[in-house]
What we know:
354 residues; alpha/beta; Peroxisomal Thiolase, Chain A, domain 1; ten-stranded mixed sheet; Beta-ketoacyl_synthase; transferase; 3-oxoacyl-[acyl-carrier-protein] synthase activity; Thiolase-like
Amino acid sequence: MTKKTYINGVGCISTQKTFDTVFLEEAVYNQNETVLSIVPPVYKDYISPAMIRRMAKGVKNGIVASALAMKDANVENVDAIITGTGLGCIEDSEKFLKNILDNNEEFLTPTSFIQSTHNTVGAQIALSLQCKGYNFTYVNGAVSFESALLDAKMQIEENEANSILVGGVDENGEYTLSLFKLAGRIKKENDLPSEVLNANSSGVIYGEGASFFVLENERNANTYAEILDVEIVNTLEENEVESALISFLKTNNLKISDLDAVVFGFDGNSDSDSYYRNLSENAFAKTPQLYYKHLSGAFDTASAFALWMASKVIKTQEIPEIIKVNSVEKPAYNTILLYNQVNGKNHSFTLLSK
């Protein structure tokens, strides 16, 4: 009998106030900046001040988000820690490379090199928990987080683990952002204010964040939702997405009409938002539609923020106005589909149910 996968705890540090709040009641839609920064928690409540000084942003946020998720799930430890990250600890990578250049490749301290690897976040969380279990980091572009989720789900199904901490973490690095701006990945200042839903320029509003989840094989009083299925598809043409989604739902004995809501990864990039718009205007016209990158910013693991949001919707049975794409409503929100892609690549479908 394959075990089911339940989300029993969530923790989210993002460009909104997503801790010490109920659910996005303090969210702000910032249309005047091209890069959003996280709203920082009080780190010293979670990490000793001596450690904080040496920690990169992403590591600190990952530790706090994972601590929040574990507290929420009421667990002291987990069997495995699986992290997804697109750029890893990019700030420390930048520091190290800058040191190489500034010091003519001499007299280098290895600290920022050691802390610049992608798996630093997972390692630091394991150290703080003294968790010696399976610890893996996926670096896979826009499906980094889904790769971690898929791994966790398979482990729970096959009884390899009973409780797993899964998260998606990315941080902003100044130099990397300047390169993204040069490459046109980030919107230009004169494209502001920008509407994420009615994209009329290319590029995105960039963000950062850390969202963690405690997944377990048994439901309890605090369970948010069950993860029914996760699928990753590398490339799809715009006209193939709908049938791919329909067959994904069919595998789970569902039709589009069975969905109580769908979460789209609209990111305001006019080059690829048509993937969502086609679905939004046609196949899903009668389904409540939600979006999130106007709040979280766009980054490789922004979809972890979407999972946090969808889990909250199922648990609270409420949809804040600020995340609605359309005005369709349902009496209850029990089954939610998440669909994300970036520039027409790395499509992911995630299915949640009460």
